[in-house]
Amino acid sequence: MKKSRGRTGRRRRRKHSKSFMDGVNCSHKLEYIKLKKWLKERGFEDSTLRPAEFWGTGRGLMTTKALQAGDLIISLPEKCLLTTGTVLSSCLGGYIVKWKPPVSPLLALCTFLIAEKHAGEKSPWKPYLDVLPKTYTCSACLEPDVINLLPIPLKKKAQEQKKMIQELFRSSKAFFSSLQPLFAENTGTIFNYSALEWAWCTINTRTIYMKHPHRECFSLEPDVYALAPYLDLLNHSPNVQVRSS
């Protein structure tokens, strides 16, 4: 069948291109249906935002109505958030409280993500985990030979981030081993470097700022992380200004 080369074909292609730039609705996909159902069970109600794929910025949320400056886009109940409080309420909590020296809030969240991902179908957070990226293209994830090709400022930043993850992994091995009673498999195979790298990138690319009171069971590093399912699908052009509260 010959491809249409006339005016009608051009209109159709322009319409398809514009549709993709405006956003292709992805709310029919099973992973998003399950995520919305899971969030609704936790008190989240939304009728104006839809998961979508955008040309240029990738995955995001599209609105079904016109928005005005200052409009509230999304409001997520606190029980939907994944914070250090969530971690302490889990089976990991007792191990974190007893561990000395105290783990950082970041490590606590990384550990929780890895453990829940390993739990698979048994994890109550599975609907959220299923929509998280499987891999990341953060500079910290690049191979050394690729990092060496970057401009000097980016190269330095990438090397710093990679070193941070490597040091976090090295210093956390004993803590990970202490969790062995919780797992049938060896913790060394569960909490490996690639798993920690994935968790670290998940938190550092998707977290929203939410300050929490300091708890004695954590190190003195600021506890300011919160993962917000669905809200973290929000994406935007680099030319706009946004504010969260």
Automatic annotation (TrEMBL):
- For region Disordered, the annotated ranges are 1-20
- Which stretches are tagged as biased composition: Basic residues? 1-18
PROSITE patterns for this protein: SET (PS50280)
Gene3D superfamilies named among the record's database cross-references:
set domain protein methyltransferase, domain 1
One Pfam match: SET
One Gene Ontology term of the molecular function aspect? protein-lysine N-methyltransferase activity
Extract the InterPro entries matched here. SET_dom (IPR001214), SET_dom_sf (IPR046341), SETD3_SETD6_MTase (IPR050600), SETD4_SET (IPR044429)
The protein's name in its UniProt record = SETD4 protein
